[in-house]
Amino acid sequence: MFLKPLERQIHFTAKTALRDLYVQKWHADVQAHDKCSNYKLFKSKFHFENYLNVLPPYLARSLLKFRVRNSLLPVSSFDPNVLNTETHCKFCGVYGPDEFHYLMSCNHFTADRKRLIGNNFVANVLDFKRLMSSPVHASSVALFTFVLTKKLKLAV
User: Fold this and answer.
1) Best CA proximity match to 39, nearest among 24, 49, 53
2) Mean pLDDT for each consecutive 10-residue tract of the chain (156 residues)?
3) Cα 109 vs. chain centroid, distance in angstroms?
């Protein structure tokens, strides 16, 4: 489609304004929703995530679901009347598990975590953010593959 210079400028301005409005709404939604409590730790900018192209499709899909709390974990209740803290970890019994718990601190996965990522990560929010922000790191891929596709999927 061939546009005149003024039409091109109007088109560009309108497209940019609409994108900016959408990104502002996205930021507001992420901050406002309880289900985004962990997501907003590692997703602060609206942009395409490279792991979607780098990881094998089955793992990228599992990781995406895990990151947006759309997995089959007990924390992922779709009932708005059920609070996230009303569940217990099916593996260790901890009250109110979330993504951080399953990936970083669940006692059930201690040996596997140590084997797969060694001492590179400890159970704190900063390392959780680092792990989730760079999911194409070799140790991250190993941990995600193990936790997301094997143990958690089979046990839940």
Assistant:
1) 49
2) 79 94 94 83 86 82 79 58 62 82 83 76 82 70 66 49
3) 19
